[in-house]
Amino acid sequence: MAEHAPRRCCLGWDFSTQQVKVVAVDAELNVFYEESVHFDRDLPEFGTQGGVHVHKDGLTVTSPVLMWVQALDIILEKMKASGFDFSQVLALSGAGQQHGSIYWKTGAQQALTSLSPDLPLHQQLQDCFSISDCPVWMDSSTTAQCRQLEAAVGGAQALSCLTGSRAYERFTGNQIAKIYQQNPEVYSHTERISLVSSFAASLFLGSYSPIDYSDGSGMNLLQIQDKVWSQACLGACAPHLEEKLGPPVPSCSVVGAISSYYIQRYGFPPGCKVVAFTGDNPASLAGMRLEEGDIAVSLGTSDTLFLWLQEPRPALEGHIFCNPVDSQHYMALLCFKNGSLMREKIRDKSASRSWSKFSKALQSTEMGNGGNLGFYFDVMEITPEIIGCHRFNAENHKVAAFPGDVEVRALIEGQFMAKRIHAEGLGYRVMPKTKILATGGASHNRDILQVLADVFGAPVYVIDTANSACVGSAYRAFHGLAGGRDVPFSEVVKLAPNPRLAATPSLGASQVYEALLPQYAKLEQRILSQTRGPLE
């Protein structure tokens, strides 16, 4: 796989839940090298399943920190053995699974700054961590700490306005609070707390890397407007926390030059820059090259919306982060649990298990579905918190069933109207230049994408996102190298491959859906009040 002609490049890393992966991207923005290490397969001695340890309580989920270090050793040795020319690497950046935290023991900085090129990293860093198994994003054991944090700042909405999200169990501040409460001695022997992203950057720097604004927004600790740690949140979580976190930095910052360890052991050039690492979701936004007003829709087992926001309105649902490629703007994430499994269930019931019949149903029914609206939640939805199937006819009366074709359209229109309503609830607005980027399984179905274009009133493009966090990290390395905040990210990535146009809004679509959307929102509120009582 190695290219033997010298090829100046940037590396993009991704320390994800199940693997560490790297891509090399050349100056024309072509990916010409990739390599990975899969934790369960390549490091079986750590005994992980899916890259994690699920504890007996079913709530606590951790990963061994030395597994990540050893994976980096293995991947660099693989690159060296393949003949990869490290001397051509101009800069590197990376992504980490969001929310996970690493606890560096007092004295660890000394070990990081004096690495010997004769030994692999994991042998030199094995005594550097006060916690060997670190909490990751799948952990949901901190409900008590979440309630304490919300109470300390005046409630869930107040916390969301401050930090971009209400308190979530996986968010790092709540994890730190639990460790401090349950293991105060371990906490006091910790000199630095890193996110997975800043931990990985620290390995390359040979010193502690700061946390970037974008990944720092997933902690319930950073004031997203002022981009400083919230004193109220820090105080509610643990003492002396600010000094253990260090000051946050813009996501496009060059945080330093690569450690001499990599220069001597692998042949990296002394001038190779390390650009701040960020979270995997922000890095994916960079990899998909979202611009102001754009929206990315991942249509998978669960459906996820990535939004570029100028003026966010934090709410009790969704997450708002600082934007990784433009520190003046924001991004939002909204997750919908009932995605492809719900689409498959309706396909099986109403379209004889056939995607082509499912498509024909969409083609043969009119936009707006004659006023027939449906809500389809097989499992308890996150956005909003509703379960069950709820159908309404044109008079807004609840009905038990729809004809097959009407059912199919009600499902797809309902899924996309919900996405638009909840996106607009966070401050998103469709603009004349808006592009929708669709990824995931359902993005291969042109008729589903047509409904998406019609409901949002914007063209839909499809894009290959197999390595979006890695590729986005390499793009961000080029951005940092080019001057970061002084240069628009879009200028740096203009040579990257363009997404493919898949659908444009039908004539008359905007009138149909502008009329239906308020009606759909009202019905959603009606179901919510009947099934669970109103949200807080």
From TrEMBL:
Database matches in CDD domains: ASKHA_NBD_FGGY_SpXK-like
Keyword Transferase: yes
Domain Carbohydrate kinase FGGY C-terminal: residue ranges: 296-479
Highest taxon of the lineage: Eukaryota
A GO cellular-component term linked to this record: cytosol
Coiled coil: none
Record's keyword terms, sorted: ATP-binding, Carbohydrate metabolism, Kinase, Nucleotide-binding, Transferase, Xylose metabolism
Ion transport in keyword set: no
InterPro entries (UniProt xref): ATPase_NBD, Carb_kinase_FGGY, D-XK_euk, FGGY_C, FGGY_N
SUPFAM superfamilies xrefs: Actin-like ATPase domain
GO molecular function term, any single one: D-xylulokinase activity
Function: Phosphorylates D-xylulose to produce D-xylulose 5-phosphate, a molecule that may play an important role in the regulation of glucose metabolism and lipogenesis.
Family classification: Belongs to the FGGY kinase family.
Subunit structure, interactors included: Monomer.
PANTHER family: SUGAR KINASE, XYLULOSE KINASE
Protein name: Xylulose kinase
Organism whose genome encodes this protein: Macaca fascicularis
Lineage per the UniProt record: Eukaryota, Metazoa, Chordata, Craniata, Vertebrata
